[in-house]
Specification:
Length: 176
Amino acid sequence: MSDNPVTGEVSNSKLAAVFDSGTAARDAAEALVATVGLQPVQVKVIAPDEPDANIMLEPEGGGIWRTIVTAHLRLGILGAVVGAIAFGVMMWAGLPFVARSPVAAALAAVAFGAVGGLLLGGLVSIRPDHDRYVQTTHDAMDARRTTVVVHALSRDEQQRAKDFLFARGAEVTATL
């Protein structure tokens, strides 16, 4: 399962390890599964002429929609709660504009908090950390190099795979 309660993807931690040759990449992928303990389905080799590279990079199409809904829902609610807490603090502090119109102030604080949470949900949904990971693989394909892609189930798994592939001479790019 995901180690991040805000997304709906199984694998939040991904990495791309670029090798100069297909043989080195395939050997590293096989050794990665055997040594680090990843499942074969978590490790993909993307050759320069791979027609389905984008699917191999981001295989969780349904997970992306779950991420969009989950991130917006949870962070929107969290934002509303933070807004309510902010209203409570302002009431406790006795701010005149809050004390004179507590209903309007409460609605505004909760609404602004919810909007802030929804904006954060949008940021999580677009996964800006994946841009480098995807672009690295496409650049490698353009340069006729081969990439080993790892879909780790945890940060620890990602770090172990990253260390292993780096030690084998790969140029490694990881998501956050």
